[in-house]
Design brief:
The structure is a homodimer of 262-residue chains.
Chain A: E1 3-9, H1 15-28, E2 33-37, H2 46-49, H3 56-61, H4 68-71, E3 73-74, E4 80-83, H5 94-107, E5 117-123, H6 133-136, E6 142-147, H7 151-167, E7 171-177, H8 184-194, E8 199-203, H9 207-215, H10 219-222, H11 227-241, H12 253-259
Parallel strand pairs in A: 1-5, 1-6, 2-4, 2-5, 6-7, 7-8
Antiparallel strand pairs in A: 3-4
The structure holds adenosine-5'-diphosphate (2 copies), iron/sulfur cluster and magnesium ion (MG) (2 copies).
Residues 9, 11-17, 177, 203, 205-206, 209-210, 213 of chain A line the site of one adenosine-5'-diphosphate.
Chain lengths: 262, 262
């Protein structure tokens, strides 16, 4: 039975970095993994492949007939990667692209039959019908939200919970990717509890993460002995087990402001 | 002749704060101003009114027949304010709301005939057909982009330029809202020049800004003698003159990375 997991969070909070390290750790553990980058930035899979790959939407805009081998690439430990790409700036719908990509993967390619885990890396700045596409397609068995203790990422996290609740989609956990703000761990733990979930990982902010990114590798591959690699492996275990997923109960604006001011 | 100016930038970069201070300064200068908040966060006009106002999309979702007095509120020095509101999380399109609001303002209300300046406060995290609505409606005579020297806001700024170029919309200038990063002023100046524009303001990061925000006022109203109030007034002058607007020439990913690494 294949697991479809969506990873949401505000732009720049660490979704791609975390998703690719989870993917690498799960692959080391023997799982067959596919990462679907749904962020218009199309940089979800660089540290798994070593460089940027062509995006599906770019190929479609060129008018080409696409085959699986044009868009699905294999990276570290056999992790399969696809980048949806973004809308044509100013005109298209980012969500449309995600829907087109998922339909392609289901109809044209056999990849969904060949993997154990699919990770969708999705921006959470705007919680519209577009970015909830993986969920609306009924595919996603659980979502994780990445945040830090700062107000903007927590605001985005709460808004994502509104979307999950509206769609009846279960939240598997909240991940704190540390920005070393005061009282961050307590804020994120309190936020996770108050929406009926839990903080499942606290990822320390470490220079080795950006060093590996610059080298074009995940931490799992580039610095397997690092402390943060161990945190990513624990997270990978949680994803593969992914129990306790529950539909969250978002906070109102007032409660959110009170919670996120230390 | 009425001026329509859009202010774009990544979430949390300072759009609402800057837009409301520009509005307050323009109103002090005798201009009649309307602020249209197009960010689903719906917090564009809090410091002009003193509290949050009902959003248009919320009223429409309640099924009410709306009149101008239900959605347009008057704040500091007579600045008129409207909050579009966001999509229903997970299902709607943020852009649809903006289109509905602009159509309402043009058809039902006479407000467009009663002001000299309209400021649209629009998120720039996702440059899709939705958020470019004020531009696609052919209304906007010029856009400003707010950024800092950090990579993510610059990346968003460059992506906004792609959208402006695609729609043939002129960029009036780049605003640096300081995050006190190393070499920020030089990075933003270089970025603005390389896209064929200029940095029109460098807004210092000052605690008085957040103090006024907590009191529910702009800096123009709450701390008129502060240094940063003078910067906002200069910016207001630039907006009312808004002369050198030109369609920008966005950078490719490679050039962007080189430019934003000090
Ligand atoms: N735990 C961490 N420690 C240090 N840097 C991190 C950590 N997590 C992410 N980063 C850095 O933060 C930046 C943004 O991360 P990224 O995964 O690209 O965010 P997103 O995908 O949410 O936009 C990257 O440069 C990444 O290296
Ligand atoms: N020049 C500045 N100095 C200090 N704080 C600032 C400045 N500009 C904005 N801020 C603060 O940054 C936060 C985000 O600003 P906001 O205008 O809400 O961003 P956006 O509308 O782009 O999401 C606010 O708390 C605001 O007070
Ligand atoms: S659904 Fe979302 S991504 Fe698509 S156009 Fe609307 S706001 Fe943009
Ligand atoms: Mg990313
Ligand atoms: Mg805002």
């Amino acid at each position: 039975h294949i697991k479809h997991i969506a990873i949401y969070g505000k732009g720049g909070i660490g979704k791609s970095c975390t998703a690719s390290n989870i993917a690498a750790a799960c692959a080391e553990g023997g799982s067959r993994v596919l990462v679907v980058g749904c962020d218009p930035k199309s940089d979800s899979t660089i540290s798994l492949i070593g460089h940027r790959i062509p995006t599906m939407m770019d190929l479609i805009r060129e008018g080409r007939e696409i085959e699986e081998s044009d868009v699905v690439f294999t990276g570290y430990r056999g992790v399969r990667c696809i980048e949806v790409g973004g809308p044509e700036p100013g005109v298209g719908c980012a969500g449309r692209g995600i829907i087109v990509a998922i339909d392609f993967l289901k109809k044209v390619s056999r990849i969904y039959d060949e993997v154990d885990l699919v990770l969708y890396d999705v921006p959470g700045d705007i919680v519209c019908g577009g970015f909830s596409a993986p969920i609306r397609k009924g595919l996603v068995s659980g979502a994780y939200i990445i945040t830090s203790g700062e107000y903007m990422p927590i605001y985005a996290a709460n808004n994502i919970c509104r979307g999950l609740k509206r769609l009846g989609a279960p939240l598997a956990g909240v991940i704190c990717n540390s920005r070393e703000a005061d009282g961050e761990r307590e804020i994120v733990e309190a936020f996770a509890r108050s929406i009926g979930s839990e903080m499942v990982a606290f990822i320390p902010k470490m220079a080795v993460v950006q060093e590996c990114e610059r080298k074009g590798t995940t931490v799992i591959e580039g610095a397997p002995g690092a402390l943060v690699a161990g945190v990513y492996r624990q997270l990978a275990d949680h994803v593969m087990k992914c129990s306790h997923a529950r539909v969250p109960e978002p906070l109102d604006d007032q409660a959110l402001r009170e919670l996120s001011t230390p």
